[in-house]
Amino acid sequence: MSSALLVLAMGCSDGTQALPPDAPGQDAGIDSGTGGAYRKTVRVSYNGTDVDVVVDKPANDEVDVLVVYHGSVWFDDKIMESTNSVLDAFKRVLTRKDMMIVSVGYPEQDMLIGDNIAQAEAGLLWVQNTASSALGITVKKVFLGGHSQGGYIVTRLNGMHRTDGVVANGAGPLDLVYRCGLEDSGALPSGVYCAAMRRAYGTTTANPQGYAARSLLNFTQGFKAPTLFVQGENDTDIQMHSWPTFKNQVTACTGCAPSTFLDLPGVGHAALFESASAATAFNAFLASH
After folding, report:
1. Global pTM value
2. CA neighbor of 122 nearest in space, from 104, 101, 134
3. Superfamily for 3-173+226-287?
4. In the chain, what are the domain boundaries?
5. Do residues 100 and 286 lie in contact, with contact meaning Cβ atoms separated by under 8 Å?
6. Residue among 59, 208, 44, 57 nearest 127 (CA)
7. pLDDT tens across 180-227, in order?
8. So what's the pLDDT on residue 14?
9. Among 20, 186, 207, 268, which is least packed by CB within 10 angstroms?
10. Alpha-carbon distance 228 to 275, whole Å?
């Protein structure tokens, strides 16, 4: 199996991405930000934090932007491959051809879940505040899209910064106390992220608060933009165990921008990219905000 297909076929027990196989996009090697369509990889910086982003620009120079975030791949030598792959996955379901996509290559290796929010945030803020001048374009609306851990990222960013809308597919990890507790008990083999959590906090029994503080269940308030949550009902038991609780907490928020939940039978973790009805809802959501 090629490295690209291996990245896309990885299991989801740690919130890893599992997208339909597709060749990752290539850096177009374009130095100028104007004069037509291109794809290029750019090292950007905002508030002193650096991150690599892949910019996929249409021919027009006045653009709405979809900022997307990849799922877990554990090791940083796979990050840009995954960054391109998730861009391709969103681009396949996006019907608009005049929308720029920026895929943020946030790091993961040797980091606890959530520590990479600084790099993820830097990518968003660069798009909102710097991309127009840096690329010689006009950025209009800005939307967020995330898959798996990328869904976790965009959900958290929605509590931090205002955008025009957020789409989260298979967002997780939802409950690290439950997830890592299964490893602590021996019900599941040890994984990279829970092993890092144990080194930092001890077991889930000894310090459940440490795990809970980084779980997505701890970030269900204060959403600043409308959100579409897409969830395949054939996702892993780990995801589906906590999904009803997550939905209830988000729905209970009285001060949040509205959230819509699209639960899809017959599809799994990559529901947004596998379901025609999900693709329709995704495009309708972007068009309505």
Report:
1. 0.91
2. 104
3. Alpha/Beta hydrolase fold, catalytic domain (3.40.50.1820)
4. 3-173+226-287, 176-214
5. no
6. 44
7. 999 999 999 999 999 999 999 999 999 999 999 999 999 999 999 999
8. 42
9. 186
10. 15
pLDDT at res. 29: 37
How many whole angstroms separate alpha carbon 90 and alpha carbon 262? Answer: 17
Quick one: tokens of 109? 């290796």
Decide if 24 contacts 78 (C-beta within 8 A): no
Both tokens of 195, joined, read 């092993």
Three-class DSSP labels, 233-287? CCCCHHHHHHHHHHHHHHHHCCCCCCEEEEEECCCCCCHHHHCHHHHHHHHHHHH
- DSSP structure class, residue 212: H
The structure tokens listed for 140 are 């209009």
Chain centre distance of CA 277 = 20
Give me the pLDDT at residue 244, please: 98
Phi, psi (5° rounding) for residue 287? -70, -25
The tokens describing 78, both together, are 């796979």
